[in-house]
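pasting for ref
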Amino acid sequence: MPVLEALLPRVLAVRRIPGADPALLRAYGADPERHRSLGLITVDQDDPTYVALDEATKHARVDVVYARSFYAGSKHQSGPLSGEILGVIASDDPSEIDSALDAILQTLAHDACFYGANADSSIAVFPHVIASLGHYLSAQAGLRPGEPMAYLVAPPLEGTLALDFALKSADVRLLKAFPPPTETNFTAAWLAGDLPACEAAAMAYAEAVVDVARQPRDR
């Protein structure tokens, strides 16, 4: 498989609220008894942001209290700073919010991104492996913090075919499937196994997406 072009996420807006109103905290899933500060971020790629939010929980004493993708994706955003997702983290200490935001920005700049699966990158794939989960995604996946997980995303047909290929190519199990249509009209899956198995499954997934992109009507 050729080297795929990285499609780096664009961070659109970042803000911190050191002392948030208790009503706002409750509205976004925080607990005013435990949280008083919020960090907010919008990005033009949702799945890398979920990974980055999870990474933040390993670097700071924060909780991810709100993270939602926007309907139809970043090409149909409600404003120039809306992007594809809003992520909100909460803590009792504003300095922890700063550390968490730093970790999020670092992950988005250097670790988690989509890749172009064809020449003009009009087909994108996210064959990401998290080597060590934080407490955000581990809770959602039913795994323990520190375990690895393959986080796989692609357009509907490509992703469906690629998931089958990934499951047959490595000793992994399906934790969750997100069939289309999702908010952004992609499909996704989370796979569990040891780290080499997750990496092999992610590679197989990407290869299958590239194969469909090359010859979309070749049964």
